[in-house]
Amino acid sequence: MLDNLITETRNDRTLDLDQLSTISVLELMQEEDAKVSLAIREQLQDIEKVTRCVIESFKRGGRLIYTGAGTSGRMGIMDAVECVPTFGTDPNMVQGVIAGGETAIRLAVEGAEDSLEQGEADLKKLNLSAKDTVLGIAASGRTPYVIGGLQYAARVGASTASLSCNKDAEISKYAKYPIEIITGPEVLTGSTRLKAGTAQKMVLNMISTAAMIGIGKVYSNLMVDVQPTNEKLVIRAKSMIREITGCDLETASDYYERSHHQVKQAVVMLLTGLEYEEAQLKLAESEGFIRRAIQTEKGI
What we know:
The chain is α/β, with parallel strands linked by helices. Helix content is 51%, strand content 9%.
């Protein structure tokens, strides 16, 4: 029953919402949003378990698959899409599946979230395997579409995780690694695109970013696997080469070209004296970690 879900209860602080001035509404929303980060902090251990699970999937050649409906599904798709330019991943490595398909990204598809069978069918299309991790997202924690997906994932041996914003959520029963972020009643009753949506985005940011760090996609705090697909990113790539190696911009630009526009290879080449193919091999041996590749080449 929805009445039992904290995300559906009325917020005592906002009962006179329609009578407040605009600035008062904004202040209330900001105060409520400030609670989200604290709620996430209380669940860091559960978030870590999911992140480690994702890292292991990536190391096995598996994928991270988000599945959800409505706002939850869109959050998964948003995070998945951003992994490609940020970390230079194959588009298949992190994917988002939403109830109602592509239409549901822009428009509400009524009833799509109520089908257990469709949740399974959509994951079947991805040829799910035991190497993969499926993370079901539902603010309410009871969405049948997500439950159906998690049940199927478990049957094929994939790792299962869930993210909800209610305590003792139904979807937690179907996930080996459940996360429950208790964000409390929304400013606007039942509008889980607000605090619950914010919490979901923050947690997905944490999981995907930490997982990418865990497989060597980051050096220091730099996006060294960024895809330089526009002028801004080309400039960023050259700047990273310069910052990491201490060379001048002209040298960075030269090695950017010599490395076929790959920051990691350029850095290893500059700091070890290796040629491109040798740097490629050294990085492969070091599982993509720049620091490890340099240390092993120098015998440190």
